[in-house]
Design goal:
It is built from 1 helix and 36 strands. Strands 3, 5, 7, 8, 9, 11 and 12 form a 7-stranded mixed sheet that branches. A 5-stranded antiparallel sheet has the order 1-2-4-10-6, with no helix packed on it. Strands 14-22-21-16-17 form a 5-stranded mixed sheet, with no helix packed on it.
């Protein structure tokens, strides 16, 4: 049953309107007038009285009378000759009939106190006359509301609930939508099936569609489909409004079919833990999104899945805070949304001097000292010292996997682990050879260049779920280049060598075990 008719007073103190809210629904829906020949149409009417006032102050209801006018006119519901309908009332209420008037009274005082409860009357096998139109169901309520502010005195209050009688065999199926869930900016296709001889209109989000797309002079068909693009509002409620004109009645009969479509919205939840770390400390970024087509974290991270987590090493350089920005792109619309988290770099969080893990390449050997220049003959100058050898290159750190305990997310860690991933240092350049003896002595030889530092290794930290929690500080760099060799002594000191080139930093991957 659908398209219920409602009735209530706008103010509980107005004697002309009932204190309770009344709804009538029909089965079939819409109600159909009987054909001129053949078996008459019958229907079930369900009338529900409820207390929908915001304060829920109980209504003391002594009697509810439901009646309709019999006859053969469009404004009549049932022919005068029709058999009496069946009837059933809510428990603890009784119903008595006098032709087309039905009186409900509570069996106990408690039953008549309508708070969050409701009162229902069901009339079955109601014969409908042959004239399409609008009939009225009259409700007369005898009730008071003594606990309201101000109290509402006992009185009879009435209203008419209109019931449309559509032409015989007129029907309207359900409004369907596929899909029922779409991304923001997405599309759904509505479909319906109904009787001809009516006007079909689709309404949603303040919009009205009454014609076939791109054909403004062609109304929507009684059975058809309609694609709706660019959905944004969640949920989007579509109403198929079906109107039928009947002779002698200015206002057409109307039945409505509704369907709600969920439009997924972009949501972003982004967290950083801990929010306070040591310089080069480890922080865990975690994010969850819905209806995102892509995500990116800047700086240092890059493109990431739409939900997940990643460990980052918060650099010691760049100031006392480090801001991470998650940019999520909404599926369908392509609109971006950004959420930022700020991590404080606290220099008072100091790791121990002795590293917990050292992943270091071996240092390069120093360069040999250059040979001494040959001595000169008596009265002749000495020879120049020889150039020293360059320092040897530092070795690259090995690839290593280390599995410590979980990260302390508190920001006030009891245990701090220093983990080093360093390339081997380059060897020191040799000292240039001394100038040979003579008159004058020979010039000193040039010093050797320092050896290049080794590259850092690939270090993987797999943080377990058990064991003591720790804050982690990561020192990750290539080996330092070897120091330059000094020039050799002589009549003039040899030129010094060059400092070795530093190695490249390795890669540190931090993941959950």
């Amino acid at each position: 049953m659908h398209d219920d008719q409602y009735g209530t007073a706008s103010d509980a103190g107005v004697a002309s309107g009932p204190l309770l809210t009344y709804i009538v629904s029909t089965d079939p829906d819409p109600l159909q007038a009987s054909p001129a020949t053949g078996a008459p149409s019958t229907a079930t009417l369900t009338i529900v009285a409820s207390n929908d006032q915001a304060n829920q102050s109980a209504v003391d209801c002594e009697q509810i009378v439901v009646s309709f006018k019999p006859g053969s006119l469009p404004t009549d519901l049932s022919p005068s000759s029709a058999a009496a309908p069946g009837m059933k009332a809510t428990d603890c209420w009784k119903v008595e009939a006098d032709e087309t008037t039905f009186t409900l009274t509570p069996l106990t005082k408690a039953a008549g106190e309508v708070g969050k409860s409701s009162v229902t009357l069901v009339l079955t096998d109601v014969t409908i006359n042959t004239e399409p139109g609008t009939a009225n169901l009259t409700i007369t309520e005898t009730a008071s509301q003594p606990t309201a502010s101000p109290p509402v005195p006992k009185a009879e209050r009435s209203l008419d609930l209109p019931i449309g009688k559509f032409p015989p065999r007129f029907r309207v199926g359900e409004l369907d939508a596929r899909p029922l869930t779409v991304p923001a900016g997405g599309s759904t296709t509505l479909s319906w099936n109904g009787s001809s001889g009516a006007t079909y209109v689709v309404e949603f989000d303040g919009k009205t569609i009454d014609h076939v797309p791109d054909k403004p002079n062609e109304p929507l068909p009684s059975s058809g489909s309609l694609r709706i693009d660019g959905l944004k509002q969640n949920p989007t409620v579509f109403n198929l409004v079906v109107s039928v004109k009947v002779p002698g009645q200015a206002t057409p009969l109307e039945v409505v079919r509704s369907r709600s479509v969920s439009v997924e919205q972009l949501t972003v939840d982004f967290a950083a833990q801990p929010l306070r770390v040591a310089p080069n400390g480890v922080c865990k970024l975690t994010w969850i999104t819905t209806n995102a087509s892509a995500c990116r974290i800047d700086p240092d991270v890059g493109d990431v899945p739409t939900s997940g987590s990643v460990y980052v090493i918060v650099p010691a350089t760049g100031g006392p805070t480090h801001v991470y920005t998650l940019t999520a792109t909404e599926a369908g619309s392509g609109h971006p949304d950004q959420v930022q988290r700020t991590v404080t770099v606290d220099p008072t969080i100091v790791p121990p001097q002795v590293p917990h893990v050292i992943n270091t390449g071996l240092p390069g050997p120093p360069g040999a000292t250059g040979g001494r220049g040959p001595g000169g003959a008596p009265g002749r100058p000495g020879g120049s010292g020889e150039r020293a050898e360059n320092g040897g290159p530092g070795l690259n750190a090995p690839d290593t996997v280390f599995s410590p305990g979980p990260l302390d997310l508190s920001g006030s860690p009891e245990q701090i682990m220093l983990i080093q991933n360093l390339g081997g240092a380059g060897g020191k350049g040799g000292t240039g050879g001394a100038g040979g003896a003579g008159s004058p002595p020979g010039a000193g030889g040039p010093g050797g260049d320092g050896g290049p530092g080794g590259d850092g290794g690939n270090l993987t930290l797999r943080l377990g779920s058990e064991g003591p929690r720790s804050a982690y500080v990561i020192e990750n760099r290539g080996g330092k280049g070897g120091t330059r060799g000094e020039g050799g002594a002589g009549s003039t000191r040899g030129s010094p060598g060059k400092r070795g080139k530093d190695g490249k930093a390795g890669t540190v991957i931090i993941e959950d075990a």
